[in-house]
Write a structure and sequence with these properties.
Strand content: 15-25%
Number of domains: 1
Low-confidence stretches: none
Strand order of the largest sheet: 2-1-3-4-5-6-7
Number of helices: 5
Number of strands: 7
CATH architecture: Alpha-Beta Complex
Radius of gyration: 17 Å
CATH topology: Maf protein
Order of helices and strands: EHEHEHEEEEHH
Structural class: alpha/beta
Distance between the termini: 11 Å
Largest sheet: 7 strands, mixed
CATH class: Alpha Beta
């Protein structure tokens, strides 16, 4: 069975990815389980950061790697927080501080449209010249106050248009079907099935 390294130390993100890929004939291993640190995310695009993380994990393990970079983009803020989503409120950032900062910035805004974006990369080797690149976009808007207890990140303040629920009010199963990461992972799953489901 093919081992594939997952280049993230975010436990909730790991759980989402492992759940979505669980029925493939592969063994996914978190980089944190191998005591590999976090890759830097120095770039201004989700794709470049995802590629950097995948290459970092693959080089450290000599295994194929999956990495994603994702975040929340708010229309009226010109796409911010974007690639800085996890670090939006500064060095001591956490989900609550990030949410509070965003709500404060939008307190007088009527246009609250936003979307989650995800770029997922799969590479067979560190220097793979043909990385698989997949994306997902989840449209919604920013609520005026948090709702729900599930999910992580900006989920309590992100309203999904189709269900009229916050991302934190959705079941994990439904979120994995409609979210930005869920969309990208479904596309990746199709590609990996072709590669490994012999």
């Amino acid at each position: 069975m093919q081992k594939i390294i997952l280049s993230t130390n975010n436990r909730k993100k790991l759980a989402e990815i492992k759940m979505l890929l669980s029925d493939l004939p592969i063994q996914t291993i978190a980089q944190s389980d191998l005591n590999i640190g976090e890759a830097e995310e120095p770039y201004g695009t989700f794709l470049e950061n995802a590629l950097n993380k995948a290459r970092f994990a693959s080089k450290a393990t000599n295994l194929p790697a999956i990495a994603d970079d994702s975040g929340l983009c708010v229309d009226v803020l010109n796409g911010m927080p974007g690639v800085l989503s996890a670090r939006f409120s500064g060095k001591e950032a956490n989900d609550k501080k990030n949410n509070d900062k965003l709500l404060s910035l939008l307190k007088n805004e009527e246009n609250r449209r936003a979307h989650y974006y995800c770029s997922i990369v799969f590479i067979k080797t560190y220097d793979d010249p043909q990385p698989l690149i997949l994306e997902g976009i989840w449209h919604g808007e920013i609520l005026f106050s948090p709702r729900g207890d599930n999910g992580f990140g900006y989920d309590p303040i992100f309203l999904d248009f189709k269900t009229d629920l916050s991302a934190a009010e959705l079941s994990a199963e439904l979120k994995n079907k409609i979210s930005h990461r869920g969309q990208a992972l479904q596309k990746l799953k199709h590609k990996l099935k072709i590669l490994y489901d012999k």
